[in-house]
Every structure is written in C-alpha cells, then in structure tokens.
Specification:
By secondary structure, the protein is an alpha/beta fold. Helix 8 crosses helix 15 (about 475-490), helix 18 (about 520-580) packs antiparallel against helix 19 and helix 18 (about 520-580) runs parallel beside helix 20. The chain is built from 32 helices and 32 strands.
Length: about 1000
Amino acid sequence: MRYIFDQCLKVFNLKSMFCLLATLACLLGSSEFMAEIAVEANDEKIVRVGYYEEAGFQMGADDNRVKSGYSYDYLQRLKMLNSWKYEYVYGTYGELYEKLLKGEIDLLPGLAHTPDRETIINYPNQPMGSIQYLFFKRSTTDYISSEPSSFNGRRIGALTGAQYKVAEKFLSDHNIQAQLVQYSDIKERDDALKKGDIDIMIAEGYNSFQNMGFENCQEAGTSDYYLVVNKARPDILAELDQAQYRLYHENPYFISELTKKWFNRTSFTTTLSKVERKWLAEHDTFTVGYLDSYLPYSATDSDGNVIGVVKDIVPEIFKSLNFTKIKIIYKGYENITQLNEALHNREVDVIFPVVSNYWITEIHDVLPSVPAVSSYFNVLYAGEYPDLTKARIAVSKRNGIMDDYRVVYYPNSEFVYYNNAYDCLDAVLQGKADAVFVSELRTEYLLRSKERYKDLNTAQLLNDGALGFAGLRENIEGMQVLDHGLSLIDKDFALSRAYNYMPKNEITTIDFFRKHLWIPVGGLSLIFLLILFFVVRESRKKGEFLRTTEAQRQQLADQVEEISLLNEELSAMNQELQSREALLEELSEEKDMQLARTRILNQELQNQHLELKEARAAADKANDAKTAFLFNMSHDIRTPLNAIIGFTELEDRMSDNVAKHKEYRKKIKMASHQLLDILNNVLEMSRIESKKIVIEEELTDAVELFNSCLAIFEGEMRNKHLELSSSCEIADHFLYIDRTHVSEVMMNIISNSVKYTPDGGSIFVGVKELPGEKVGECTIEFTVRDTGIGMSQEFVDKIFEQFSRARTTSQSGIQGTGLGMAIVKSMIDIMGGTIKVNSKLGEGTEMVFKLPHRIGKAPAEADDGQIQGDIWDFSGRRILMAEDNEFNAEIATTLLEDSGFAVDRVRDGLECIDMLTKHDADYYDIILMDVQMPNLNGYDTTQRIRKMADSAKSNIPIVAMTANAFKEDQQKAFDMGMNGHLAKPIDISKVFGTLKDILEKDE
C-alpha cells in the first residue's frame, strides 16, 4: 500500500507540472493570437448584404430570428477569407434588386447571369452555385401532366431573369405555344398560381412547397447563379474573386457538399415515380425479417417485441416518402440461414441486416438495397496483432454476416465456427482462435457486455463494410421504394439510433471497493474518530454536570450552616424572652410570629436537604450510566474494529489466496456495518435529545413499506434457521407516512427479535389497519412476537431508558449501544403513537406499537417506458473542488476524473475565490465546496462568490460536499446560496446524479 501511495504521488506531481506548463504555454500563445485578432478587427470592412426570405436558400430575414440556409453558409465561409463584417438589409427580392441598382446595398445572392445586367451590376468570375428548375402545377389540375404537350396554350409564370430564360428555352426546344408571364417577386408568383391567374410556374428545384397544394410536373433545366456586387464597389468584387478562388481550390467539393446539406429533400427528390406510387398503392403491409440477438442492429426483447436500429429506420424510410399508412410487420429469426430461407419462402418482403456487397448478394440470389448503415469493421484479438492472412478467424454460425465479410476480404484465412459472438470472443481469450471480426457498432456493444472482454485489443480493418436490406428480384419495385427512402433520411440516422441500444457500463460498489481497499479502511477509521469525538464530548458534558451539582451542594451546605447559627440565636432569644416574660407580655404576639417564621425556615431546610439528596442520587445515577455506556461502547467498538484490523492483516499475509481474500473482505464489510450502526444510534439519540428530529410525511404505499422492511431480514433469518410468519391487513394502501422514521422504528424492533432469538426459533410480524380517531385518518398497529430469550419484568420497566441492556456484550455476545429502544420510544412519541412491551424471561417477547396516519389516494401509474438509466459521462466539463483533507480530495478527484471531469483542487476558500477570479467566466462549469476549511469556510466562500460583480461567475453552480449530513445542515447550505448538498461518506450515484441535474438546469 505504501508503494502504491508513493507512486500515485509521483504521477500526481508529474501531472501537475505538465498542466502548469501547458497553461503557461496557452496563455503566452493566446496573448499573441489576441493581439493579431485585435489588429484584424480594427481593419474590418462593412459590407451591406441584401437578405430576402427563401426556404432552404436564405432563412431568418429579421435581426431577431436565427439565420441559416445555403446562401447564409456561403456568405459566412467567404467572411472567413476576408476582413468583412456584414450589415444585413431585409426586403423582398424585387425591393433588394432595386436597392442594389441604387447603391444602397453591396452584395445580393442568387442572381442569374444575363448580358443586359452586365452593364448595371458586377458579376464575379465564379458562380455561387448551380440550380435545377422545375415546373409546378396545382395538385388539383388534372389537364396538365408530365407530357410537355400538355403545356400548350397555358399561362406559365416565371421570375425575371434566369427563370424566364430557362422557361423560354424549354418552350422552344419542345415546340410549345404558351404564354410566359414575368414576375419580379417570389410571393407574387406563388400567389398567382394558387389563385389560378397562371396554370404553371417555374421555380427552383430545392423548394418543397409543403401545404401549398403544388406538385412537380416536369424538369425545366439548370442555370448558374451568382453573388453579384454593387457596380460602385470594385474593391469588394476583387476581394470576392480572390476569396472564391481560394475557397474552390481548397475544397473542390464545397458547392456539392453545401447543396447536399440544404437541398437533399426537395420537391424533385421526394417525388415518387409512377412505379413507386403504384407499388405503394398495392401494398398496405410491409414485412421485415430481422436477425435476432444482434444488437444494436436488431433483436427481440423479453416481451417478444422488436428492438434495435431496424425498429427505428424502417418507419423513417416511409415517413421520408410522406407515406405513413403502411403497416410494418417484424419477424425475428435465430440465424442468417433461417433469415434467407424466410425471404425465399416469401414469409417476409425484405431482410436486415445483410452485407451490402453485390457479389455476396448475388451468391445468395437476393437484391441489395443501398447501404443503411455505413461503418468500418474491427478485429478483436488478445496480445500481439495477428497476421490476418494466416490467422485463425473465429466466425459466428448464428448471424453469418461476419462470415460474408471474411469471404470477401480474407478468403485464404483459416476459420473456426462457433455458436455465437460470445463464444467467438471466449475462443480468442482462451487461445483457440487468433481473432474475430466485428462491426464497429457491435464492437462497443460486445466489449461492454461482459467484464472479461475488457482485456481484448481492438483495431480497425482497412476495408469498410456497409449493412443494409435485401429482397428478391421479383420485388424490385419495393426495393426501389426502399432505396428512395434511404437516400432521403439523414446519413447518420442509423448510427445515432444505435447508441440507444448499447448496454450500460456500470461498476458495482463491490468492484469499486475491491480495487480501492483503502477507502473502506479509511472510512472506518473516520467513523471511529467520530465516535471517539462524541464519546469525549458526552464525557465532558457529564463532568460539567457533576461540577455544577457539587457547587449546588456546597451552596446548600453553606445555607445549612447559616440556618444552624440562626437557630442558636433564636434559642438565646427564647431564653431571654422567658426570663423577661412578665415584662414582655405585650410582645407575645410578636414572639408567636417569630416562632412561626422559625418553623417555616426549618421546613425549608428539610426540603433543601431532600432536594440535595435527590440531586446527588441523580448525579450518581447519570455517572453510573455514563460509566456503563463507555464500558459497553469501548467493547462494542473494539470488537468490530479488531475484526477489521485482524482480517486486513490476514489478507496481507495471504496475498495469493483469492478465496480467502473474498471471505476476509466480506467479514470486514460486516464489521464496518456494525460500527456504522453504533454510530447511527448515538447520533440519532443526540438529535432526539436536542429536539432536531423533523417529521416529514409523504404519500407512501404502506404495504410496500412493510414488505421492504421485512425483506431486509429474510437472509439473516434464513441463516439462523428462524421460522418467519407475517400478516398484512391494510385496506388503504396509500397513507401519509414519515417513511424514514417509521422504517427505522420497524427495522429496530424486528432487528432486536432476530438478534435475541436463538437458532431454530420463530418470529411473527404483523401489521393491521384500525379505525382512526379523526375523519380521513386510520391507525396502523404493528406487532412483532418472537420465541427469543425474553426479558425480566425489571428490565421491561426500564427498557426505554438510554444505555439500557439486559446483559453486557461480553456476557451475551450480542453487540449494541443500548440506545435502540430509547430511540424507538422517542420517535413513536414524536409521531403521536404508543408502544407496549410484553415479555417473559426464557419464553419470548411481544412488542406492539400504534401510529395515526392520514389516508391518501393512489397516485397515477408512471410510464415505465420513460425510465432511463444514466451513464455518467461528463467529458468536456471542468470542476473546481475546494477540499482541505488530502484523502478526501484524492478520493473525489479520482471519481470525478473517471467520469470525464477535468478537476482543479484548492485547499481553502481563499484559494477557491482566487482560482475563480483569475479564469474566464465559463472556464469552470461547477464548484464542489467543502464546508469546514481553514482560512475561509465553505459558507463564507459561497457568499463572497455570490457577491461578485461578474454575474456569470457569481451564478456558477456550487454544491456542498461535507460531513455535516443532517437536514438542518442541508437547509443551511441552500440558505447560504448553494445549489446542492452532498453528505460524506459520498454516495457515488447520488454525487453524479446531483451534478448532472444541476448542470442540465444551468444549461
């Protein structure tokens, strides 16, 4: 352990030095870079751009709207090659064209080249794109078809410029006699077709005209269009020519990529052919055969429903074709052979997934679709990278896909068949095979599925392989429909959906503590120190009480002495009065009054003597209770602590015995739980005495609460061969219950029965609903009856006193603080209930308690389908952690960095404020703040941060991570301005869940 710790310190120091050097380098480099940016910013040239609204081409024609589109992306790319700053001028196409001619704007996108325009505007050397033009008609117009002759005698609308010339050329090439109507504005043209002023219009092919009642009827032709320049700005024209030259030479495919991005779905690409429309009209169902147990591509869940990419992609294909009426049927098959047979037997229309390779599909006598999933394939191997031309390749007989890939690219390799992919991976681990081929998405799925596969190495194969659908040649029209839909959906659709079906990569608590044994040892040591602290504190309180009592006793003694002197004086006065009785008869009444006062003083003296005696007895009793408590606590703490230290020593001595290690760790864990129970009882009693217990009732399923408390002890009862019987007679399942405290009371009583009932005994646990004292309330009666060792009547009378135990730990061998039943009684009293104990020594015990509860209504059922597990991935996030304890800091840093966080750690509040001040506002995403720190504590640090002038920094999320774990500590954290509260020892899932919730809200 010492060696590992030293190595960690070395790595940490190297890492710290590297981060420091990298930070200094970035600061030096950024200073020069920012200087250059400042110089360029000073030389920016204002360029006025005419910006009109047109779907797909230019969108967001308003300063308050998001801008996007083909033209907008093109303009932004040009700006990166010039020192331009755009000033947008909005209007219709016709209005902006007039502004260009008047010199009120500098640039206008989307104009075709015509000779008459060359004299009034400047054209650059290169076009900004090429556009396809289509003819559109109203969907209700039947007399116009895709035949050019149907255009004869019709009125055709076109925008002035390129559209008009393309329409003229089309009419001339096809000898069509029609009337061309020119428009200067897009909306004016569209409205004319909608109202019936024209029969046909020509428009750009990227328009979809959704919900306008237009449809494509004929291709018109293509034309280049330009980003034209104000005639009075030759300087901008020269810069534009230079920028376009650089742009097209650096990326020759820029125009095609931009076109595909913005005009992939157009009225032309989404228009179905006659063959496709006919096939869709004739088919109301579409059956897809898929390979079972082949996630993330396809599989069948426990309910018999299809899951995987295939479930998502097939509906998306028909949705992209605007055809959603078809019913999709899925059928799963165990292996690729059954899948092919089902296709050839006409049980299904298509199958998925298959390798999209023409030679492979020709061998299987099927017709492939275009690729649905394009990805690389990986080779998984153990040890050194194998020579794949000579290696033994493990192939799954179940799916057959990887066998097809191997036949295409590695036909000469030796191969061995196994039942499934898991058997293939196991064969590689056992040395029976050298490698196994797996698709890229399946690689991550398989490596996550089992812990032993983490030792396998993976490398990408040079040849990529696409997966898709396959059908019979007789269904070629259906395959055309499928290909058309695949061409319209996003190319990354399948990839994005695949990650929804990946298994979770979770680390159990046992695995974590097995790798980090020092964490439970350190935690137990911390618990011991806390217990010792509270014991010493209680001892000091008792000592102070004794000193106060002794002072009161001394004060009473002084008063007694004074009264004695007074009595002596009164006796002397009586003697004097007797001798002067004859002379002082007139004073007899005064004498009687003096005697009466004397009697009163004597009575007070006797009362004070009695109170002093009772106070001394109470002090002696408290001192005896403290002594007994410390004696029992010392034994109870040392017993599990001795087990922890002893088994740790045995584990170090037997370093090679894995079975013994597992047994020792299990016993160490049991001993640590015993220590934690002792600490929890001491803390709970302290909170009750200080009146800090708060009852918080919430709607709870009472039957589920009873069953869950009972289930905790089933294993322990089984180990002791105890016979358990139970009954639950609750009519109103949902009640308003303080779940935490009621569970604690029930489990404390059941635990005592299990603890004090010998092997072979029996325990009965029952709960019953009784009528309540008020309307809308009921009384729950909880009964626990056992055949245990029982208690004497003497002990039953004092069972609810603190530190009460019938026998000591050393006598019975049963550990405890003696606080359990005192806590139970206090909690039941606080919740307004009653408890009754019946017991007989040697025969057993029966405990019955009753609690009043309000009756509630059953809540609406939650949608289980919406419950998703979280995968803790905080990559790209940076956290500032304030923690003065080195061990706590090391634990938290390791956990946070493993989840993807970049962690900066400081030791107190002053350092925290300094780090936050010297970095940019968005440098840190969140702060993890300890409360008790030197120099400046967490609460004061938080208040200083909230008062910072920079609102971005003052509003940064802050989460308290502290050993102050009570509810009042949590409320204080929120009152100080913190966003969350995490208690130590830390709960990993709660820490990451809290951080995720706060970061998502902050975004």
